[in-house]
Design goal:
Elements: H1 12-58, H2 64-98, H3 113-138, H4 145-166
Length: about 170
């Protein structure tokens, strides 16, 4: 380029700086939104625990059928907590990857999106397994539990195959 002439093209590094500085704000929205979902699910799960225990203590039913239903309710609550944990881990992972270093627990190592995806898929497999357990506990012999369980098993197998191929 000759001295004294100006280029018509914008400065690429300036545009990249604008995009990357704005992305922190964008990912901050994702982190806050995901953390709010996790917080909401944790609170709702806790409230359901309190209601279930209060209802059981105020009108006790000592039948085996009621106990199985109560146990299934508690397992579903655990499933809610597991899903809340997934959202919490996603919030931490997005923060760690796109905003700044986070004080993560020792067992939680997120270096890239694949690490975050693997954690998420593992938690999904656990949540699906809990769903099958809940269905098995409340099965009255009339529903299509085999089809339900096979559908969930197929999902778990697909996730497992994906993780196996990726690693």
């Amino acid at each position: 380029m000759a001295v004294g002439t100006q280029s018509c093209e914008p400065d690429q590094t300036f545009m990249i700086r604008i995009i990357t500085s704005g992305s922190k704000w964008l990912f901050s929205l994702a982190v806050i939104g995901t953390a709010l979902i996790a917080l909401f699910l944790f609170v709702m799960g806790f409230l359901i625990v309190i209601v279930a225990i209060t209802h059981t203590l105020t009108s006790p039913d000592l039948s085996v059928h009621f106990l199985k239903e109560l146990l299934a309710t508690f397992i579903e609550i655990i499933d809610i907590f597991l899903v809340a944990t997934v959202f919490y881990i996603i919030a931490l992972g997005l923060y760690e990857l796109f905003i700044a270093k986070a004080p993560l627990p020792g067992w939680l190592r997120i270096c890239n999106l694949d690490d975050l995806k693997s954690l998420l898929l593992g938690m999904i497999v656990m949540a699906l397994a809990v769903l099958v357990l809940g269905a098995a506990l409340t099965w009255d012999g009339t529903g299509a539990i085999l089809e339900y369980s096979l559908a969930i098993a197929a999902g778990i197998a697909a996730i497992s195959f994906y993780v196996w191929v990726k690693h």
